[in-house]
Design goal:
alpha+beta, 3 domains, 24 strands
Length: about 425
């Protein structure tokens, strides 16, 4: 692939001739940017926009812009390049700053702003809004997509739910996703981004992932969010609860009425993840531990659930080794073997010789709205409002516009 060389500014050329000055510039730039990112803690961020980390640890990304664009230094706004389009170019983190194609610019971060009729492509994924590419200290890149909240949701909903699901279920999930995103937006004021673009926050596919029916659901619920006692809360949701929802304490010190779990849900029985089985050998368990922060515990002797939540999910799983034991939370156990392999902490473990047989139910943490259950409830005639009332008892459906006159109140983790 041939990359188009970017014309460098006079300051950039001077930077190449003076390494010490360039290092000083990068250092000062970093501190200025941190200050700007943190901003004033007293000012509430705009609820109309969100910052999405679409890449957090790649040493290189591929950038392309379809249409007019401006590339500028992140910390000063100094223009680096303007053009009618940007052909595919590799952007790399280097000690001197950023390498854009064959040219090195002595800035730790750049901002790419497309014209209103243009689009950015990052690693083949088209994105709305603008992006910032930041060189991190370990020479990896942090790429942040600044995008309108409603546009962000268009790229989320199609990844979180099939677009062929009933519209009312998609509307319910859209409202939950919007509330979750806004909650993160208003509680991440000291972080350079609000949400990540993967399943650790909400899966985000950008403009590339948008679909007609999911976009319709986003537009039909524009601005609608959930509150409890007039305050914003994080309405977690998941694929399949497997029969009963979980208390939000598994997600942190949350103790609020809409997230106390215990909602009996048989509507998700049609989910392909309602029941599942896995098989792990003692060798599998030992290898996974050696690759993790836990390290070797010697030959594996046994593995069993030693504590459960009130809904029956595994709260603690103890792995016995010849040298020592390791106690894992349900989340840690899933992370150890992969969230797709161990789909839920709602499981039982039976040992037969050198093999552990795992019978599981559901997919996800089980807190809040069950997506497969919502789809079935919609087929049974329930509206989006009724679906949300079922999974978030005590929550109130409201509009962002009703709360914007004063700073939006956000509930803390303790439920106050």
């Amino acid at each position: 692939m041939v990359h188009r060389a970017l014309p460098l500014t006079t300051e950039t050329q001077k930077g190449h001739r003076n390494t010490e000055k360039m290092r000083w510039t990068i250092s000062v730039s970093l501190w200025i940017s941190v200050f700007l990112w943190c901003g004033s803690l007293s000012a509430q961020p705009s609820p109309e926009w969100i910052r999405v980390a679409v890449s957090q640890s790649d040493p290189e990304v591929t950038l392309q812009v379809y249409g007019r664009f401006t590339m500028s230094a992140l910390h000063t706004g100094e223009p680096i390049q303007q053009g009618r389009r940007l052909d595919s170019v590799a952007v790399r983190a280097v000690p001197q700053g950023l390498a854009v194609g064959e040219q090195v610019v002595p800035f730790f971060g750049v901002k790419i702003e497309p014209a209103s009729d243009a689009a950015i492509s990052l690693n083949g994924k088209r994105l709305r809004g603008t992006i910032e590419i930041v060189r991190q200290q370990n020479l990896t890149l942090l790429v942040i997509n600044h995008v309108a909240l409603e546009d962000y949701l268009r790229g989320v909903l199609s990844k979180e739910a099939p677009d062929y699901w009933p519209l009312e279920s998609l509307k319910a999930i859209a409202i939950a996703a919007r509330t979750y995103a806004l909650y993160q937006r208003l509680t991440k004021t000291t972080s350079p981004f609000d949400v990540s673009g993967d399943v650790m926050s909400q899966d985000y596919g950008g403009k590339t992932a948008e679909r007609a029916n999911t976009t319709r659901a986003v537009k039909a619920t524009r601005g609608l969010i959930l509150t409890t006692n007039g305050a914003l809360f994080p309405p977690f949701y998941h694929s399949t609860c497997g029969g009963k929802t979980e208390h939000a304490r598994v997600m942190g010190p949350f103790n609020i009425t809409p997230l106390r779990g215990g909602v009996v849900c048989t509507a998700c029985s049609a989910s392909p993840f309602y029941r599942w089985q896995r098989r792990l050998t003692k060798a599998d368990v030992g290898w996974a531990l050696r690759q993790s922060r836990h390290g070797s515990i010697g030959p594996i002797l046994d593995m069993q659930v030693t504590k459960r939540t009130p809904t029956g999910r595994a709260e603690t799983i103890t792995i016995r080794g010849r040298n020592r034991d390791v106690a894992l939370t349900g989340y840690e156990f899933r992370a150890l073997f992969g969230f797709e392999r161990i789909r839920s902490p709602q499981l039982t473990i039976q040992s037969h010789g050198d093999t552990f047989f795992i019978d599981g139910a559901g997919w996800g943490h089980g807190v809040g709205l069950c997506q497969w259950g919502a789809a079935e409830l919609s087929r049974r005639g329930l509206s989006a409002r009724e679906i949300l009332a079922f999974y978030y008892p005590g929550a109130t459906l409201t509009s962002v516009s009703e709360l914007e006159a004063t700073p939006i109140r956000v509930i803390d983790a303790g439920g106050r």
